[in-house]
Structure formats: structure tokens, C-alpha cells
Design goal:
Radius of gyration of chain B: 26 Å
Radius of gyration of chain A: 24 Å
Number of strands of chain A: 0
Distance between the termini of chain B: 70 Å
Strand content of chain A: under 5%
Helix content of chain A: 55-70%
Shape of chain B: elongated
Number of helices of chain B: 2
Oligomer: heterodimer
Number of helices of chain A: 7
Amino acid sequence: MTTVKPAAPVGSGGPSSSWTVWLRKRLTGLVPPGEALPDHQPAYVSSWIYVFGVLTIASLLVVLVTGGLLALGGVAWWHGSSLGHFVNSLHLWSVELFFVFMVVHLWGKYWMAAWRGKRALTWITGVIAFIASIGTAFTGYLTQSNFDSQWISAEAKDGINSIGVGSWFNVLNPGQMLLWHVVLLPFAIGVVTVMHVVLVRRHGVVPPIDAEAGQ
Amino acid sequence: MALVAVLAGPLVAGHYLSLGVLSISLTNALIIVAMVLLFVVALLAPFPRYEPTVPRQPGPESAPGESLSDGARP
């Protein structure tokens, strides 16, 4: 008597053979259970210095929304339209707050040595986000389409040429600077910011240096 | 006409603070001072507290055996 082995369903060669399963495990394992969107924080987080990270993200969202509106109107929109000028001012001042909050966040994390406890990559992604933000702000100066942007680009070209990258990063090319400002650098900032936040949730908020167990 | 008036008017470069080779505009210096003050206030100002209505279950950050010296998670 022979036994008939039931036919294996298609794709049942083991969970590890599927790239979707691999990706699902990677995504679900990024942060410990319950830590992706927590409703509680350790007691030491009860300080205003811990607020500046999320303030930076809130400012970044306003920057991105107002920047998107300016992109819809075009680079000259804010010169001839009061609404465009208002949106441009919102963009400017949200950037100012973005940098103020980010620098205070940086100071706070530096003085509490926030790279402790396997958090080096969290610190590094924050540094990259800071540098990319500076580049985005500088290219923003060059896309104002006014005398100010002409003056700044004429001054900047010497510095850029002195490090030998003027052929690839031409600050006198408004079209190239516009695309760096509205596409490439914001995309980089967005990706690095998501990595930074995921790492914060993965490793938790760094405790103060003098924190004791149980706090 | 407005453009002519602007071009014909006095061009003010702003006020600068100079110390040897260092030079910074007064506006930027005041902004940096304001940021330092904001940093100090963030460290010293009392943070509002609230009593949770539901008792907290022990979480990963308070798990026994975990060192809080650096808060590293296993």
C-alpha cells in the first residue's frame, strides 16, 4: 500500500525563502515591541531639554509643507504675490526655528553624551541630518531669485571652486541649485531623519549620566 | 519709483562686532545669545508633571538587570 503525500502549497519552501518574509521580519524587528509609538517615557525624560528633538521634527514638517507650496507657485511667486510672500515668510521663519531647535537639541545631546549605550549610529545620523540641513539652507539662499541670491552665489563660487567641486556643484547655476534645494537634499534629510527617529525608538532615550537604576 | 528710492537711499551694512580676526553681525550674535538662554531655560525650567490614571506596567527601560548607566538595551 502506498501513501500519497499531500501536495505542498506553492511557495511553502520555508519562510526564509521569501523576500517578503525577510523584509517583514526586518521591519518588525527594527524596534522592540511597544516602542515604535510609546505612550510612556522614563522619568528622566521629564525635562524641557528632551522636547527639542520633536520640536525640530515639527518645524521640519512646516518647512516641507511651505516649501512644497512655494514649489507649486514657482521661484518668482513670492516677488509679485502677497500670498506668495506670506508663504515664503512662513518657510523662512520655520527654517529659523528648525535650526534653533536643532542646535539646542544638539547641545543637549552633546552634554549628556547621547552616543552612550550603543547609540553611536543615532548620533552619526543626527550629524548627517545637521550637515544636510546646512546645505539645504545654503542652496535655499541661492533660489531666492533676487539680488541677494546673486551676491551670495558670486561669493560662494570661489569657496566651492577652491575645494575643486565647482564643475559638479555650480552655485552660479540657479536651476541646479533649485533642484538640490527642493529634491535631492530634502530627500536626504527625510531619509536620515526617519533613520534617526527609528534608532531613537530602537535604543530608547539616553538617560542622564548620573541616572540610577529604577529611575 | 520704490526701487529708485531704495537704490538712492543710504546702504546700511548693519552693525558688526569685531574682535581681532573674528567678526560677527550684531543680529547673529543676539540670536546665538538667545539660543544659549533658551538652552539654559530648557535645563532649569520645571517640567509639568501629571499623574497617570492607569498604573504603569514595567516597561523595557525599567526591566530588571538592565544597566541604567548608559540605558543600553540588550
